Amino acid sequence: DEQPFKRWFVKIRKEIVSLGNTEIVPHGHHNHISPEEWDRMIDEEDVVILDTRNDYETEIGVFEGAIDPKIKKFQEFPEYVAKSNIPKDKKVLMYCTGGIRCEKASLEMERQGYTNVYQLDGGILRYMKERPDHKWKGECFVFDHRVAVNKDLKPSERYGLCPHCGDPGDQNICCKHCQKDGVMCIKCQEAMDHETCSKNCAYQHNLRLQKQVLV
Is 60 exceeded by the pLDDT of residue 215? Predict the structure, then answer.
């Protein structure tokens, strides 16, 4: 009931989600399975569960037993598949946030010789809506100001966007420059010598430290 995006505009793109291959064009529903059928297949059949999302998304939530490709961007997915040890005749259940990436990922796997590929219809978001207390663990990253949603599809109370890298972060900090409360991801917190709530504060704090050294 709430508009999640502050601005709305249209851009013409060669690909909606870029896989790096414009020849892969989804046509309608392709081996979609419902959340209920998803759980049944996991419980009763010999399957591989494959996450098609980026590493910063998988860090905050996954399905139990899923393979994490640890890709930085979706364009790396074809290379991951080519190097993976997943048998070509194995039944693969793949998922993403809302199902869009899987439309292309499933076709890419079939292009590489996989014959038994299924995708979660509606993605994680539909699954959480229909089966919130089943096999999903953690929260789901979303591409708007909410950053992530919990199993009840409510905006995350744990994660915010790290101002330094843009990944979800849950490390609460007090900015060394402006003394305001903020949030960082643990990677940036460990990599930086100080905790700051923005890139500007990081720059100003470093500048102040440099001046102190010169005095």
Answer: no
